[in-house]
Write a structure and sequence with these properties.
Blueprint lengths: L1 H22 L2 H13 L1 H16 L9 H15 L7
Helix pairs in contact: 1-3, 2-3, 2-4
Length: 86
């Protein structure tokens, strides 16, 4: 059972990587690989987000580095947690 789940997960990851390579241009892919080194959890979150957008048809054409940075900022903003003390 665990082996089947692992194979399904690997197949899903391969599909995600294939979709990511279709939608990102060279510079955006380089930036993603640099992000993966520094913050792997954020990179995987971003990959999943981009894959969802691609599968739902919300991404048309390729994403250049500028658009990639804008998407990354939006995801980073969602992650910020503000704690205020009274």
């Amino acid at each position: 059972m665990i082996i089947i789940e692992k194979q399904q997960y690997q197949a899903q990851q391969a599909d995600t990587q294939k979709n990511i390579s279709k939608i990102l241009d060279k510079n955006a892919r380089e930036r993603l690989s640099m992000l993966r080194v520094v913050r792997p959890e954020l990179a995987s979150q971003l990959e999943n987000y981009l894959a969802q957008l691609f599968e739902s048809g919300q991404i048309r054409g390729t994403i250049n580095e500028e658009k990639f940075i804008m998407i990354l900022r939006k995801i980073s903003e969602k992650r910020e947690i503000t704690i205020s003390r009274k």
